[in-house]
Amino acid sequence: MRKKPVRVAVTGAAGQIGYALLFRIASGEMLGKDQPVILQLLEVPADGPQKALKGVMMELDDCAFPLLAGMQAHSDPAAAFRDADYALLVGSRPRGPGMERAELLAVNGAIFIAQGRALDAVASRDVKVLVVGNPANTNAYIAMKSAPGLPRKNFTAMLRLDHNRAVSQIAAKTGKAVADIEKLVVWGNHSPTMYADYRFATVHGESVARMIDDQEWNANVFLPTVGKRGAAIIEARGLSSAASAANAAIDHMRDWALGSNGKWVTMGVPSDGQYGIPGDTLFGFPVTCENGTYKIVEGLEIDAFSQERIRITLAELQGEQDGVKHLL
Ligand code: NAD
Ligand code: LMR
Fold it and tell me: Which CDD domains does the record associate with it (predicted)?
């Protein structure tokens, strides 16, 4: 028997990440090849984006996806989020060449207050929210704080792109297959201060840290490469990453909804005080996912180098949160 369709809201649906994302959701890559979806697409009311969104929907039609059970275009979050089971908050202003992420805070804060309130008012009480739009952790924090009627754990921020970038760099360094690298984590903020940590990583049970055994490479090559990858792509493309960001969003939601099969993945989730991160901070943690829920991996040893990295990324996040306090 066919499954009942679920409602997937996507904001910024006519943008470049939207274009790399919607077709994959509709083809079943996010929620499974047996799960029909209804796409509830949000764009700003201006004619240009709304017209572009119509064009994307024409293309979705032309794919004749068997799992696409319906789609709607909206300019009002309260309509787009109605009964949503999943919400991917992509729409926001992207960072251009030379622009600092902190500058985005003011512009994007207002968007995520309105969208948090709308989710609170009309979405499913179990809605799984992923914030992609930057600054992702703080935008997710704002949305969570603006939706007091929804469980805090429903709000997550995307660090999976950083996680995937780190996995790729480790695979290249060790000559091992991407698929065999386990137990990697990216702590903290989706920004250059993030701390990609391979101390616990293994390949078929063998320690990656022991394989690499080069702290100089870790501090001076690996961490800057992963941390500044977003800026490097903007520099090279003149646009921020899109296909890899959409891919990471699919990975994040798929693992959350369908389980990570015991594997660690990185998600930005509200802290409950783990590892000394103050409650509510939307922080990149190692998690495992099962039965539609995630669980932070606890009890990992944090050495002095890691403690300092975590302190730096936490301080940045707290600065961002302080910067939006007056908006909340
Ligand atoms: P884009 O400019 O191509 O598309 C964004 C779209 O969002 C536009 O069509 C715009 O009209 C729409 N939009 C703006 N405000 C909106 C609102 N209030 N409601 C609905 N739609 C709205 O940008 P993009 O390249 O698709 O990137 C989107 C966001 O994702 C940016 O903030 C970017 O920095 C961020 N990003 C995050 C990651 C990550 O790893 N977390 C990675 C890449 C990009
Ligand atoms: C990325 O990591 O590619 C994006 O967040 C873009 C950016 O602004 O760094």
Answer: MDH_chloroplast-like
